[in-house]
Amino acid sequence: MSGECGCSANQSFDGSSPAYKRVLKLIIAINLTMFFVELAGGLSAGSMALLADSLDFLGDSATYTISLIVIGMPLATRAKAGLFKGLSLFVIAAWVLGSTVYRVFIEGVPEALTMGTIGFVAFAANVISAVLLLKYKDGDSNVRSVWLCSRNDAIGNIAVIAAASGIAATNSAWPDLLVAGIMASLFIHSAVKITRQSWRELVNERKRVLASSDYNG
Ligand SMILES: [Zn+2]
Whole-structure pTM over 0.70, yes or no? Predict the structure, then answer.
């Protein structure tokens, strides 16, 4: 992970273009809207998977806003933003895991129709985001992670829709809790990955700065 290769022009695209910033703002608006839609849907349907996914929309809105702010800033600043992303994902994962375990001991079956409908709207929102970002998917790690995230979230929404059908078929809460649990473990996986990469970037950048100050002095 030494950033010395020039590679293709595309791979060094760090998001510094007005067109990309416009797309990113639109994606942030979509994610923030979907946070409120899924939060309301999750509470009214009693679905942990919808609540977990709503938190993902909230986290993504925050993450993309940070990405937008740090575009063009020094690597060390961007790496610190990455560390913040990773740590906040850990917090979300812990909350989802904790409340899912809590739900295991609570009676009640989520409302499958609401869950499936909201899940489908969320799926559409993520597919639209992924398509809007498709053009930029080969940029630097920041730009790339935004695209990957929308794509993965669309896949997660299919799991929510499947869980809703499972609930309708079995009249039990287990499909919901299972999907919420899987989502929490995916959050942890991403959190570890993002935290590691940002930490490495930060350490490398510090080494590079020290080396160049040695050289100059
Ligand atoms: Zn996401």
Answer: yes
